[in-house]
């Protein structure tokens, strides 16, 4: 695990100095993060890096994962989908299942921090354990167009928090609590994002029998309908009529996402249409994800809905040209035709992919601009700073706090 000093060559000495100063002010406070999975998905990805770095800076930060069975995670996945605006039937039984597991967690979870940082809807009901301490609800979902029944159900809990945090201004909702805008981040020195020797990249391509004889288009994502793997295959097949290339759709699962295996099977079936489509079920292995991203000519992220889309930041950081849907937090990362290409449809995606395959110089420039944009805005050091300032602000009396 790299130490905080190792970030100096990337972000400069003053950034790290500031972080140490701010953290000093939090001495004596215990900060507890709570989410629903230790592996898989963006939240676990962030906490796995954020928690040890905070500790190294001197903050007393802990991380708890709530418990839940299959039924609970089926319900919370449904909540996730409808909060993102997808239509699915939600029944009273779903709310009962949610509350039953929540009650168990309320009784069993060991919550003792001064600042409790709750991630996403799954653990939201833990607020019932609120005492004199400060509670933050962190929303990683694009809730700009949520199902109203589920949203109102959640608001009953959220309004008991001290603050809420959203990734983008457009996600914020009318709420009777203070709101902050903090976009997520990537860690440039993690196994997922650090530089890799070419031999490592080649070895991993070899492992998956991928030959570099033609351009590689890749989407790394959980097998989730909202990531639109079927749309990616359609866009690729349209491109393939004009430019010889190959497609990698790679992803693993998350313990709080029970839909994965079914979507994976469907996608595997569709992939039989073309021998150059590689569907990879990845083990949780950051070096492999890193290598596949680095081996790619273009990264695609054709999500139908997205919270932030860490995979986009990861690809841009590697200087890759990216084609991604104009949804959720993706437009924060991609300024169209400057740091990548945004698309709104399968046709749009295939058009953008063709354009980049046919103009390598333009593709390279977009990748370079993308890397710079991520460096300036979406690295973990900025995120750490925002968190520390947010924690400090909880103890301020003023109504307005500028981050
Ligand atoms: N990821 C991974 N292995 C996989 C699929 C995804 O490590 O098989 C990582 C991916 O690199 C990214 C995170 O999981 O860091 C996904 O975050 P994102 O915001 O893109 O989507 P989410 O899964 O949270 O909807």
Describe the structure.
- By secondary structure, the chain is an alpha/beta fold.
- It has two domains: 196 residues, Glycogen Phosphorylase B (Rossmann fold); 180 residues, Rossmann fold (3-Layer(aba) Sandwich).
- It is 44% helix and 14% strand.
- It has 15 helices and twelve strands.
- A six-stranded parallel sheet has the order 2-1-3-4-5-6, with helices on one face.
- The longest helix has 18 residues.
- It is globular.
- It starts with 7 loop residues before the first helix and ends in a 10-residue tail after the last helix.
- The mean pLDDT is 95.
- The site of uridine-5'-diphosphate (UDP) has 17 residues, from helix 3 and helix 11.
Radius of gyration: 21 Å
Helix content: 40-55%
Give, in spatial order, the strands making up the sheet with the most strands. 2-1-3-4-5-6
Which fold name fills CATH's third level, the topology of the largest domain? Rossmann fold
Mean pLDDT: 95
Q: Sheet bearing the most strands, described?
A: 6 strands, parallel
């Amino acid at each position: 695990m790299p130490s905080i000093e190792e970030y100096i060559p990337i972000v400069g000495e003053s950034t790290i100095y500031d972080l140490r100063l701010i953290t000093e002010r939090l001495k004596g406070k215990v900060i507890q993060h709570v989410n629903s999975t230790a592996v898989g998905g963006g939240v676990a990805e962030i906490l796995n890096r954020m928690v040890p770095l905070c500790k190294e800076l001197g903050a007393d930060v802990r991380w708890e994962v709530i418990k839940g069975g299959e039924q609970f995670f089926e319900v919370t996945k449904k909540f996730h989908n409808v909060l993102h605006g997808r239509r699915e039937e939600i029944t009273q039984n779903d709310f009962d299942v949610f509350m039953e597991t929540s009650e168990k967690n309320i009784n069993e979870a060991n919550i003792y921090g001064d600042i409790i940082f709750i991630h996403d809807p799954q653990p939201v009901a833990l607020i019932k354990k609120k005492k004199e301490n400060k509670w933050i609800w962190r929303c990683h979902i694009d809730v700009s167009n949520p199902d109203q029944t589920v949203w109102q159900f959640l608001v009953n809990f959220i309004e008991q928090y001290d603050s809420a945090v959203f990734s983008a201004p457009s996600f914020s909702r009318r709420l009777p609590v203070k709101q902050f805008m903090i976009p997520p981040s990537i860690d440039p020195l993690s196994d997922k994002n650090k530089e890799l020797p070419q031999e490592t990249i080649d070895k991993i391509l070899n492992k998956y029998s991928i030959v570099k004889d033609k351009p590689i288009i890749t989407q790394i994502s959980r097998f989730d309908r909202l990531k639109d793997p079927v749309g990616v295959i359609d866009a690729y097949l349209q491109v393939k009529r004009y430019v010889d290339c190959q497609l990698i759709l790679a992803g693993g699962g998350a313990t709080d996402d029970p839909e994965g295996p079914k979507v994976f099977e469907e996608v595997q079936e569709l992939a039989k249409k073309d021998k150059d489509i590689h569907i990879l079920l990845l083990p949780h292995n950051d070096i492999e994800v890193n290598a596949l991203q680095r081996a790619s000519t273009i990264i695609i992220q054709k999500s139908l809905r997205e919270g932030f889309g860490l995979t986009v930041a990861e690809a841009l950081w590697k200087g890759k040209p990216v084609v991604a849907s104009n949804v959720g937090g993706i437009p924060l990362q991609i300024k169209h035709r400057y740091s990548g290409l945004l698309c709104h449809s399968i046709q749009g995606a295939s058009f953008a992919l063709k354009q980049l395959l046919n103009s390598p110089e333009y593709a390279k420039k977009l990748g370079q601009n993308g890397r710079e944009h991520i460096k300036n805005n979406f690295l973990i050091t900025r995120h750490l700073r925002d968190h520390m300032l947010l924690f400090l602000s909880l103890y301020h009396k003023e109504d307005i706090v500028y981050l």
